């Protein structure tokens, strides 16, 4: 959730959605994203819409946030009903941030309970919270599990102290195995998030982080290349020459090492940056994004999507709380996607999945996509056996060059 909101059309104050949103909704999954915009400190690489306590104004305290988020849950349920969108139980719920677990576990449980009251929860639904290793206790994790959470995603990032220092992470590496054990004892599935390519991180450092993370036996691992965003502390440090530039070749070598070690440990890739121990342990909430399902985003700066209608909330927690306090939509803007745009986005997202793209469907984008397949196979970017069966699935080399593959598929 980048800190800069996109441009779009004005969003109506009543939040009502156009008729398009209801078309075919009964056949689509429905999920909920809950953005908790609070962090203890601002990490130097982070460009997300987050705030420390000193950056908050009136009406946006952490103590009041659960009540404000619940007000949007109630608002969302009314809007979907009044817009003719059929009610569907939640298939996934994801609390992200920020650091959701900076809020008391009781507050997270209250928000989840309100959401279940509004829409219901599918049997076996996935309910995830992100967490920093230094923001949970055995008691808080057990409370979350008792409230209906099924999964926790810990921001481990690295096992190497000097790398964590560059990233401004506040936890110590020894904390991670403790919190993994606590989560297991509470009955929660465990995902670990890692970042590679931090300035000053050697290939040996990255190997150590991977081997350490895998030694904890997680159900899921995400490994993301560090992206230096304009306006961040890290970008300024690089510009001043205080830390080295990001190196694309270094990123490629570290991705290849990640895939080698994670695969050897029994986890399989299902999206370019994500591996799970079984298909059932893939993050179903993120898969819903990549497959174009429906979701409502709760919280300041949160994005939503229902039936090709996309909107985003105002950024600051104070403005967000003030709008909901008057009964108005917190949306800052929205857009209605046409068929061509939806097809392009489908290609961009589904190409990143191990299930791949349906090659015959590329004809809907013109001849470019289908004609590109042979060249992609010849260049070692696409699996030839999968292509013979009608699916475009990236090879390891193709995953390294996923954006370039997509550009070759899409028409100019």
TrEMBL record:
Keyword Lipid metabolism annotated: no
Residues covered by the Radical SAM core domain: 24-268
Gene3D superfamilies, per the entry: Aldolase class I
Subcellular location: Cytoplasm
Keyword Isomerase: no
PROSITE patterns: RADICAL_SAM (PS51918)
InterPro entries: Aldolase_TIM (IPR013785), Coproporphyrinogen-III_oxidase (IPR034505), Elp3/MiaA/NifB-like_rSAM (IPR006638), HemW-like (IPR004559), rSAM (IPR007197), rSAM_sf (IPR058240)
Annotated transmembrane regions: none
Keywords of the record: 4Fe-4S, Chaperone, Cytoplasm, Heme, Iron, Iron-sulfur, Metal-binding, S-adenosyl-L-methionine
Family statement: Belongs to the anaerobic coproporphyrinogen-III oxidase family. HemW subfamily.
The protein's name in its UniProt record: Heme chaperone HemW
The organism of origin for this protein: Arthrobacter humicola
